[in-house]
Each structure stands twice: as C-alpha cells, then as structure tokens.
Design a protein that fits this description.
The structure is a single chain. The chain is mainly alpha-helical. It is globular, with a radius of gyration of 20 Å. The longest helix is centred in the first third of the chain and has 41 residues. It has a single domain, classed as Amino acid/polyamine transporter I (Up-down Bundle). The mean pLDDT is about 85. It starts with a helix and ends with a helix. α1 crosses α8 and α4 runs parallel beside α8. It has 14 helices and no strands. The chain is about 75% helix and about 0% strand. InterPro entries: YkvI-like. It comes from Piscibacillus salipiscarius. Keywords: Membrane, Transmembrane, Transmembrane helix. This is Membrane protein YkvI.
C-alpha cells in the first residue's frame, strides 16, 4: 500500500506538467459538455496505468523501450521512440514560450520571459538534472496543492454548480486524444520503474489512486474554466482567468509556482533530448544543449496557446494507436495464453 502511494505521486507529477497546470491543456480538449469525457478519461487512464505497470513489473524493466516493444512491437516501438524525441523537442519550445506568457501576465514583456528561460536553461546544462529534480520534488506538490485549493475556493465562492450540463455530453470523444496524448510520456516514466515495484497490490493502488485524483482534478478544473469561459480569449494561460480577483499574494505565488513547473518541464525535456541525440554528435553535451535551445527558439514566436492548440491535439491523434494497444493488451494476452 505504501509503495502504491509512492507511485501515485510519480504518476500525478508526470501528468500535471506545465501544460496541464496552466489549464490550457484541459480547455483545449474538454470545455463544455465534457463530464462524460472526463469520466471516460479516468477509466482509460486507470486501465492504462494497470497495463503499463504490470508489463513493467513482469519485465523488471529499467527503461521504457522493452515496455513499448511489448505493447506495439519492435517496428512501431522504433517509430514511437523517435516520436518521444520529437515530443521532448516540442515540450522544450512550448515551455520556453510558456515562460514568456507567464511573465507577460505579470506585466513583463513576452521576450523577457523567453530570454530568461533560455539563459537559465543554458546555465543549468553543466550541472545536470540532480539539483533541479530535487527542487521539483518540493515545488510540484506545492503546485498541485495550491491548484487544488484555488479551484475548490473558486467553486465555493462563485457557487459553481458541481454538476454541469449533465444531459448534453457531446464532447465525450475528446477523452480519447486527451488520454493518448498523456499515455506515451506516462510509458516513458512508469515503464522504467518495473525493477522497483514489489507487488501487484502497488500497481492497483497506484493506478486507481492516481486515476481518481487526476479525474477529480480535471473535472473541477474544467467546470471552473467553463464558468470563466467568456474571459479565456484574453488569457494565454487560463489559470489566470480563475485567479482574477484573488488577492495579489495568491496570484503571485501561483504565478511563481507555475513558472517553476514550466522551467522544470523544459529542463527535463532538454536533458532527455541531450541524452538521446548526443551519441550522433562529437560535441560536448553543453554544445548540443545550446544548439537544441537555439533550434527551439524560432517556434516560440508562435505563442504558448497557439502551440498547444495545434500540437497537443496532433500528438493525441498520433498516439491513439498506442492507447488502443494498451486497452486491448489484456484481451490479446488472454487470447494468446489460451492458444498455448
């Protein structure tokens, strides 16, 4: 049970990155008439966690590739391995853009946020990920807790109805690309912990617990965003529409926490990229890192909300095959065992 709660923290931290915490990812896929969609996402997410963790546990895997190969075969695993590389590069320039959008809300010029992020990414390259991940273990729970408190207080103060548009549920299909968008990064993280899982009880505790937490969080975030939907056009980061009217101290604290979530997501993506591509170059990791950052900069001109609007649904569609294989895996495995 205790081990299961440990993995809940890892899974929730993997899901609640800067795109999710900002509200832009939730609003891009859900919005009006999405209650059923969020319920379906919760169910599919729980099943996905159970399947991926079980495969990882049985293989005693230390990285995600064996899990990916088990799910989609070696040929498709090679394709999605490169897909993860492209996803990491996308996350890099989306997060650099997100830094500009966050500081712009605090009335700094957009380019100041972009330059600040670039400088701090370059500075951290020689030091590796150890220090920033230690900071992230402290800041991310604060972000999740702060986000939960903000949403609950907002719903209470604004008297937001907890049951929204329960008859109209036309947007249920959005649950599929939303789940598939998040399932490949999930494989990359929890596919690497198989050697550390001690029992299947941990798997069920982690899967059900994280699914219920994320499903509930997604639902209350979504109904909060529906309540301020007429204001979202003016905000690249929807969370700030909810924070509008809060004490300036809360606004500032959440802005700082969100910026650090953006920064750590960018660092994680950058180091993942460096580790994956440095074998193709003779240069040092510092040079490779700087070149990757420079390659990402032109894409930041598109803007944070536009990048998420175009790229996240695209990745959601690309990853649907992986999600389908995860959901079908128990059936396929049982059929294979019967033949034997």
């Amino acid at each position: 049970m205790i081990g299961g709660f440990k993995w809940i923290g890892l899974i929730v931290a993997t899901m609640i990155g800067a795109g999710y915490a900002s509200g832009r990812e939730i609003w891009e896929f859900f919005g009006h008439e999405s209650g059923l969609g969020i319920l379906l996402f919760t169910i599919m997410f729980i099943i996905s966690c159970v399947v991926v963790l079980t495969i990882s546990y049985e293989l005693k895997s230390e990285h995600y590739l064996p899990v990916l190969q088990t799910l989609v075969g070696k040929r498709f695993a090679h394709f999605y391995d490169w897909g993860i590389l492209l996803y990491l590069f996308t996350m890099l320039f989306v997060m650099i853009s997100g830094s500009g959008a966050t500081l712009h809300i605090l009335e700094f010029p957009y380019f100041i946020g972009v330059v600040l992020m670039i400088v701090l990414l370059v500075v951290v390259i020689p030091y590796g990920m150890g220090g920033i991940l230690s900071i992230n273990r402290f800041l991310l729970p604060m972000l999740i807790l702060g986000l939960a408190v903000v949403l609950i207080v907002f719903i209470y103060q604004e008297k937001v109805p907890l049951i929204y548009q329960y008859v109209e549920q036309s947007n249920w299909v959005s649950s599929v690309p939303f789940t598939s968008l998040n399932v490949v990064p999930l494989i990359a993280v929890i596919g690497a912990i198989g050697k550390e899982i001690e029992s299947k009880t941990e798997i069920y505790v982690a899967s059900i617990g994280s699914g219920l937490i994320l499903g509930t969080m997604s639902y209350i975030y979504n109904i909060s965003l529906i309540h301020v939907s007429d204001q979202l056009f003016f905000y690249e980061i929807p969370l700030f529409a909810i924070l509008n009217g809060y004490p300036i101290q809360m606004f500032f604290i959440m802005s700082v926490l969100l910026w650090f979530a953006i920064y750590t997501t960018a660092i994680t993506s950058l180091f993942g990229l460096i580790a994956r591509v440095k074998e193709y170059f003779k240069w040092s990791k510092g040079v490779v890192g700087v070149l990757l950052i420079l390659a990402a900069v032109p894409f930041t001109l598109v803007g944070f909300s536009n990048l998420i609007s175009y790229l996240y649904p695209l990745y959601g569609l690309i990853n649907i095959y992986v999600l389908a294989m995860i959901l079908l895996f128990p059936i396929i495995k049982r059929a294979s065992e019967r033949k034997i």
